[in-house]
Amino acid sequence: MVGGGQLARMTQPAAIALGVRFTVLAGSTDEAAARAVPSSMVADEKSLDDLRAFAAGCDVLTFDHEQVPFGHLRTLAAEGVVVRPGPDALLHAQDKGVMRSRLTRVGIPVPRYAVVSAPDDVRAFAAELVGSREAAPPADGSDLAVPVVLKTTRGGYDGKGVWVVTSLAHAGEPFRAGAPVLAEELVAFRRELSAVVARSPSGQAVAYPVVESVQRDGVCVEVVAPAPGLPDDLAVEAQRIALTVAVELDVVGVLAVELFETVDGRILVNELAMRPHNTGHWTIDGAVTSQFENHLRAVLDLPLGSPAALAPYAVMVNVLGGDAPDVYFAYRHCMARDPALKIHWYGKELRPGRKVGHVTVCGDDVDDLRDRARHAAAHLRGDIDE
User: Which of the following CATH numbers is that of domain 112-185: 3.30.1490.20, 3.30.70.660, 3.30.365.10, 1.20.1740.10?
Assistant: First the structure.
């Protein structure tokens, strides 16, 4: 697995259980996975020579992020390295413009969008949105008819590389890198959902329950599985979309499709991730087969495991770095206070706002589970001390 972050770290226990020799390419010995995987190789994932050297000792190459250069992966695949998911699939997780265009061609619903190269293009796109909505331009003197979401086509994550702009004066920053920018309508949505599926080279695929994802400042902070109150037809539609994307893009491994449930009852695709995903962490404790195990099964073309939930609900809350004066005391307190709580710590240096762990609780009362998981995460952050 290329990448030494927490996703690679959480894949290690699944590899041990399967009897699979697992190694990671990490950027330093301090990365989360390098601390947990003894056979880690420390190298530069942006270097083709380092990737070649790493791949030489592996049967299959997979990833815990989307940042490995596309050209390098194409070269490795041409040289006979088994890359899963393949470069042509991964490109759709690396480039939002390519992804939006491809999904539109195969009939997958996405927000209205345009790839733009200058602020004036943003003005034209906003005007098109107003026309399509049959709405009048605002009377406040704004030079954009409606707010527009701007995203860097490559490299954005956890809310980085995303702007909501209301005027051209605010639209300049996304273009400073000199790369194309994705302009999208500002979707009126009820909540965000995620559909996680796994697919093998043989074509077998499984779908996990559709979850509700709560975001704050562009960062996932909470996941509820399954999404409470989601109508059956929308849940089935979300899973159908995710499975269709997996087939159309020939994804091998875990695919997470992040979605909007709109206020008018539609499902729109927001983002894709072709790897284990934050919205699937609940599966470690709450599903028959975790997303990490199914990712390994998929890339090794083993029969996939059941994605069924073990309880009516699971709630996962991320632990972000905070001001806890004594994290070890908080750790002990949470364990003692709630013995059914599962705490996952990533072995990362504590920094404000950084994902350093998560907590999960499973049961049949979703409100109680939310309260317990939020309390534990707040205690581990140092927000509360009781």
Answer: 3.30.1490.20
Q: Which residues contact 364 (CB under 8 A, 6 or more apart)?
A: 311, 312, 313
Judge contact between 256 and 207, C-beta under 8 A.
no
With a CB cutoff of 8 Å and minimum separation 6, the contacts of 372 are 315, 338, 341, 361
- Cα 137 to Cα 142, 147, 166, 263, 304, distances in angstroms: 9, 11, 12, 22, 52
Say which residues have a Cβ less than 8 Å from residue 163's Cβ, sequence separation at least 6. 149, 150, 151, 170, 171, 173, 174
Partnered with residue 212 across adjacent β-strands are 193, 224
Which residue type sits at 368? D
Residues with Cβ within 8 Å of 236's Cβ and at least 6 positions away in sequence, in order, are none
CATH topology of domain 189-381: D-amino Acid Aminotransferase; Chain A, domain 1 (3.30.470)
Q: How high is the pLDDT of residue 132?
A: 55
CB-based contacts of 164-170 (< 8 A; 24+ apart in sequence)? 165/122, 166/142, 167/142, 167/143, 168/119, 168/120, 168/122, 168/123, 168/143, 168/144, 169/143
**End-to-end Cα separation, the chain, in angstroms:** 40
Q: How many other CB atoms are found less than 10 A from the CB of residue 138?
A: 14
Q: What residue spans in the chain does CATH classification 3.30.470.20 cover?
A: 189-381
Residues 6 or more apart whose CB falls under 8 angstroms from that of 226 comprise 209, 210, 211, 235, 309, 313
Q: Provide the sign of the torsion angle of the four alpha carbons 95, 100, 101, 106, taken in this order.
A: positive
Q: What is the pLDDT of residue 24?
A: 98
At 63-106, the pLDDT tens digits run: 999 999 999 999 999 999 999 999 999 999 999 999 999 999 99
- Does residue 206 surpass a pLDDT of 50? yes
Answer left, alpha or beta for residue 25, where phi above 0 means left and psi between -120 and 50 means alpha: beta
CATH architecture for the domain at 6-83:
3-Layer(aba) Sandwich (3.40)
Would you say 183 and 121 are in contact if contact means Cβ atoms under 8 Å apart?
Answer: yes
Contacts for 175 with CB less than 8 Å, ≥ 6 apart: 117, 118, 119, 181
What separation in angstroms does the CA of 238 have from each of 24, 63, 303? Answer: 32, 24, 23
